[in-house]
Amino acid sequence: MTMLFIRLSALMAVAALAAPASAQDDSPAEVTLPDMAVSATSVDGVLAVVKAAGFKEAKSIPQLDDGDKRMIEVENEGLTSFILFKDCDEAVPDFCETLVFSTRWNRITPMPAEAVAKANSNHRYISVWRGEDGDPYAQWAVFTGREGIPAKVFVGALKRYQSVVSDFWDVAFEGDPEESVKDDGGADANEGGAK
Question: Distance of CA 183 to CAs 63, 73, 119, 123, Å?
């Protein structure tokens, strides 16, 4: 019963936050998505839906904390984010139940704790924290279960996440010298795994 409640809560949160695609970007309102459920059990399936949603340069790459696992790199308007595959079965590493959208910004100086708190208060469903080096990270977990969620709901969540992290740039670099690299390619966007 608890698992059903968690799954329903996660789906309701994703559906509530997933604004219509036409309200999130300037791409054509109609996108043809594969008629399939998106599940963290299939890197190739998730990648196909991400590409069909308009992120044509998305690609599967090795996950830094585990070379046997894959993650998906997504570029959007100069910002690199990743889709991590988490909550995996130890015996079957590719059998995962959660997708985690993850982004890292490379600051010259550590992000102030007050800015992290402000970011978290402004965006309740996205977790923002500082890494060991003081750089800000943002993540949003989407529970797909083994059965998956509708492609339209997944794409709505991904576009909503991309919109929020794009708007987060000013907060991420507030008070940092102008020389900051606004995106370093997210080399360790999954540092320490999903938080």
Answer: 18, 13, 18, 20
